[in-house]
Fold this protein.
Amino acid sequence: MREIEFRAKVKRSLQLEQIKNGWIHGGIFENKIISRNTNEGSICAGFCSKVEIMPETVGQFTGLTDKNGKKIFEGDIVEIIEIDAFGNLDWNRLKGKVMFSEGAWLVTDNRSFAIPLWSEINEIKVIGNIHENPELLEVSE
């Protein structure tokens, strides 16, 4: 069974060790992320804290990681480098956002193109997210 986890940007600056660069991970309930401190050396080990979040930034964990082992969340911007039949890299590059649609995790390039996320998992890299790096998806004309 895959891990159920969400990620969201916190509404205001808090000094909790579960918050990394303004983002918190955990379960979600009523626009709050329920995060558990898993640092056993901490005085708060096992303590759950509710943190108010920006609902528009919530993204679910896909259950997959990129080629560097980084967790892939809904709303991430990824780069896929396809390999040709001869094993050459850079044959085709695609940048797109991760989204959930019709029962599947997809990568879409903001136009009509979408591919299943799992089909490209060996050559995919998280390069940002739509909330902090929307310019990564801009198409030059």
